[in-house]
Amino acid sequence: MAAIAASPEDIRKQFGPHLSASVREGLAPGAPPDKVVKTHCCFCGQQCGIQLLVRDNCVVGFEPWMEFPFNQGKLCPKGVKRYLQGAHPDRLLHAYERDPAAPGGFRPVAYDAAIQRVASEIERIQSQYGPAAMACLSGASLTTEKAYLMGKFARVCLRTPHIDYNGRLCMVSAGAGNKKAFGIDRAANPWSDILGAEVVWISGANIAECAPITTDYVWQARERGAKVIVVDPRLTAIARTCDLFLPIKPGRDVALFNGILHLMIRNDWLDHPFIREFTTGFDELAASVQEWTPRRTSEVTGIAEGPIHQAAQWWGQAKTSFLMHARGIEHHSHGVQNVLGAINLVLASGRIGRANCGYATITGQANGQGGREHGQKCDQLPGLRDIANPEHRAAVAKVWGIEPDAIPGPGVDAYELFRKADKGEIKGLLSICFNPLVSLPDNNFIRRVLEQVEFYVAIDFFLNESARYANVVLPGSLQEEDEGIVTTTEGRVVKINPAVECPGDARQDWRIIQDIAGALNRSRGFRFGSPREILDELRAASRGGIADYSGITYEKIEKQYGVFWPCPSDEHPGTPRLFENGSWNPVAQGKGPFYFPDGKARFNVAKYSPPAEEVDAGFPLMLTTGRVVSHFLSGTQTRRIGPLVDHCPEPFIEVHPLLARRLGLAEGDWATAETRRGACTLQVRVVKTIRPDTIFIPYHWPDRQSANQLTIAAQDPISKIPEYKVCAARLKKAASPEPAASSQGQTR
Ligand code: SF4
What we know:
- This protein is an alpha/beta fold.
- It is built from 23 helices and 28 strands.
- Helices cover 29% and strands 17% of the residues.
- The longest helix has 19 residues, at 111-129.
- The radius of gyration is 25 Å and the shape is globular.
- The chain starts with 7 loop residues before the first helix and ends in a 14-residue tail after the last strand.
């Protein structure tokens, strides 16, 4: 199609990021809020309860929501400042069309005209190239109603197999591993089970920055005597307070898990009755870990043998325990194997499905759990159903009022969508709450694809960096402008409540999607009058599936402070802890606790393989990427909130003092990190909290500051998650880059 609509500097001037430091006049003394709305934070998968203070249709502040059980009023810096996005000067108030002559490269157009333009371009592309030439990129920050609607919209309205979502960059390794081992994809326990664990094992999870409220659960467990084991290439904040820190080389987690299991077997720290009665596959797994002696494990992981023995002993001998992990072990070309290795330790111990014995993967995005259950994944239908399974297709087709054959087959993952667009097989893109130019790896390739697609429509509430390449931008809704459900990291379904109306021409996202369907004259099945009506259909479509939401209503959520799925009937209270004796399980039907026909969990051989790109003489360092507490994902929101930008205005490169000395680098020096895909010049932070063979860059920034210029697009063969957590890099001292490329813009 076309290059960017205007220069990045012109676009920034017009559309931001600008910084918001206050809301209008704020909440003046003597001017009480018009209303106080109990809802949830818009950012991470913890979904902390919060009360928004609203005045004159504007969120002007917040109060803690003490009664919400998960966080009991506690919030992290992002939650405290989230109210500053409400009346933000960058908020999109109109639809826009690309116009290089207009300020910032886009001119405002009437909403209806923009919808007509989108419909006519979809018609043109699909009649010229076929239905599959259109693709949808959806988001895991959307409510579950919207995620459901997007899956239906792609398959029923656009009749394309091509929809995937940005949870592909987040939760899919965990999801695939969970399904392989347990037959169900959800944290197995509520977080309250952390409190009574004797041992808490945390692998690849910088929870103090990425899931801060979880830190409180871990520390409460410590105060009750728990031993905390942390495995990470960086001595993160949670690692600094743990009892045993294992500084693993990036990408070697499965080797450690196999080494621990080897010692559990050698010392007979196993729950034989549990293994016999409730699992299959142990003998094959046991044979596979024979080679993982402490010495070999140490050689591969870079962890000394002593701590490996200590970790195995604590884990092996515990009576209660909780193992949790996050993207640190999942963002790998063998992320699913890492997850299976972790689950093997849990199953071998038999400590699951009862109080204080648990396992969880920590979700990243606001609806990282619910967003991966109801059909916006390329291979999925609502209720965690499989789009290739004839019975599953028939069940959903019945609810949708169409023939099963009318549902397209599986599509491809989000990165593959871009490869298909690069090859010319996909001609049109519709994105919603997805900023691939910042969040996908090797993003110079993504830019090239965005420049060449024939038509790109972006739906969002701020003009994110990817939308700079759009032909049409449609103004969607902020979280507080709509209602609906999301599912938290615990598996607890909670309700987002509307606090304000959409401003200007902005619309709730589900209305925009239905308006496009209407303009295409394909509105059958897209005439919902409210999120409640969408939820009613979702409940029916999920009935009988593993993620059964059929008994979940807004009223039950409000009454119970959330409902844990599965919840298969109006009378059912929900399922806080999975795999308990007698808990609802439509697959095993009484044969056992796990979601397979025989009711047994699966041990899986977790195969070790090195990262896709090993270090060599030319690129001798390992680059790993991640988050900081002040920012969230691609930064579309947090890079616009002044106090959060004050906390962390720029990305940086973390370097160990030994490496810094070798390269002649000091704190604050500029250095260029380079990989085979690109280079990025940032200031250096010299820290003792990282391995000397590894550098770290946070990824929330675009353009010349983007860490994802460097990352590799190698993907896990099962989950298709990209390998963000390790690639080969080199580092050298550099001059300060041109100041013009600042991404922050001016405060206003
Ligand atoms: S921990 Fe997550 S949900 Fe809670 S306040 Fe922080 S960003 Fe929001």
